[in-house]
Amino acid sequence: MQALVFDRPALDTSATRIARLEPPTPGSGQVAIRVAYAGINFKDVMSRRGDPGYAPRWPFVPGVEVSGTVVGLGPEASGHRVGDPVVALTNEGGLAEIAVAEAALTVPMPAGLDPGRAASAPGALTTAILLHDHAARVRAGDIVLVHSAGGAVGRSLADVARARSGARLVGVVGAATRVGTARDAGYPTVLVRGDALAADVRAGTSGRGVDVVLDPQGTAFLHEDLAALAPGGRIILFGNAAGGELAALPPTHLLYRHNASVGGFSLAALSADAPAMVAAAMRAALYMLAAGESTSEVVVLPGLAATPDAQQALADGAGRGKYVVRVSG
Ligand SMILES: NC(=O)c1ccc[n+]([C@@H]2O[C@H](COP(=O)([O-])OP(=O)(O)OC[C@H]3O[C@@H](n4cnc5c(N)ncnc54)[C@H](OP(=O)(O)O)[C@@H]3O)[C@@H](O)[C@H]2O)c1
């Protein structure tokens, strides 16, 4: 089979190639899927960079999410039959003609949903639903600050908040070039990250501050996040976009001072520990897509050969929407 391979850690596309590999065999509780479409995610960039914990071996086949058809079942894999059209969270190995996924993280493709769009559901949109409903428990009336609001997760969070809580959103982006993208996704207020972030947030919320901060920027802005919180506010850390060392959490007295909570979210860890919760969120994400509740643009690339440039665009912060690649079929 053909697959996209990272040979070694690299900051550019120099160690990325399309390779011919033996197809993977589904293990216990897993299914093999002929991949029709696979999503491209910032996690590909983090594994390509060699961030700790992302690529467990080299060469490495990235690919978090797929749509396609079940072509094999491992021992103890229940709930699916060969020939079923499905959508799956693979966590790795999705950018290949055949991928394996846990049966528990594989869900039926909704009838009538475009399989290219469906392949965009398990990563960003599922993450947004889990952040909104479970990690941050966003409620109607909350004001929610979203860092990296112009990225795929940020845009999905706007869709999810619109559909599920009606929470008021404040978007934050790292460059003025991403303001328009975040506005178009549904953020009425978009701030460009700068030295006065907390002051800007307070100015934009009549001094009140925000109830929730969703932050994929590691610990780089944690003190600004704390200073931007309303009493009882909560911060959910869910990424480390720049890579590098994570700092310690703020000292306890600062949490008292701000009546604040700090939590974390990882889709990969949750899919290992609570696959049924992740699968339910994937079904909800697919329902949103089928119901037209997600406005995020999906850019379909014609084949694996187009993937390295799209991954580089994400690495450069220059993505043009959510990328999905047609792999076979
Ligand atoms: N915890 C989880 O399970 C989980 C799941 C999905 C995604 N994530 C994380 O969420 C973040 C966004 O993912 P996405 O799918 O929305 O990706 P995306 O569409 O590629 O957007 C990534 C965003 O990260 C920022 N960025 C890009 N390169 C950067 C760099 N070198 N240093 C600092 N910031 C950079 C940019 O936002 P700015 O405008 O802020 O600069 C960009 O819009 C990523 O960090 C990803 O790893 C975590």
From TrEMBL:
Q: In what residue span(s) does the Enoyl reductase (ER) domain sit?
A: 12-325
Query: What is the superkingdom listed in this entry's lineage?
Result: Bacteria
Q: Name one Pfam family in it.
A: ADH_zinc_N
InterPro entries tied to this protein: ADH-like_C (IPR013149), ADH-like_N (IPR013154), ER (IPR020843), GroES-like_sf (IPR011032), NAD(P)-bd_dom_sf (IPR036291), Zn-ADH-like_protein (IPR051397)
Q: What is this protein called?
A: Zinc-binding alcohol dehydrogenase family protein
**Taxonomy of the source species:** Bacteria, Bacillati, Actinomycetota, Actinomycetes, Micromonosporales
